[in-house]
Amino acid sequence: MSDLPDNLKYAKTHEWARVEDDNIVRVGITDFAQEELGDLVYIELPELGRKVTAQEQCAVVESVKTASDLFSPVTGEVVAINDALTDEPEQVNDDAYGTWLFCIKADDLSELDALMDADAYQHMIEQ
Predict the structure, then answer these.
(1) Are 56 and 71 in contact (CB under 8 A)?
(2) Residue closest to 100 by CA, chosen among 36, 12, 24
(3) For residue 74, is it within any domain?
(4) pLDDT digit string (tens) for 8-33?
(5) How big is the chain by its Cα radius of gyration, in Å?
(6) d(CA 17, CA 9)
(7) What is the pTM of this model?
(8) Is 24 contained in some domain?
(9) What's the CATH number where 18 sits?
(10) For the residues 42-64, what does the mean pLDDT come to?
(11) For position 1, what pLDDT does the model report?
């Protein structure tokens, strides 16, 4: 297990979130999640312009073992998707914290307060 970046927030559903300028929240999946899933073969990303609410299912990752739903960490609008993952979903396996999936322009960044910091997430996955 790699060290968890301290600058991210973590969801119980194994997404990470990083706040950027203009209330943009960049979202990916954790290293723990990609290890559990195994080799990713397909990622279904949300459509640009889609309105999502916090904890709403909005994307899917599929591996050789299983499929897993991904959830939005915040309410807002999808403003970017990582198109490169359509042809190369294995980028997430190679670098889970360096490979983002989609970005949301958050309506309210305080929703991120419901997520865990690195220590709390580490504790959860060790249970």
Answers:
(1) yes
(2) 24
(3) yes
(4) 999 999 999 999 999 999 999 999 99
(5) 13
(6) 5
(7) 0.95
(8) yes
(9) 2.40.50.100
(10) 97
(11) 47
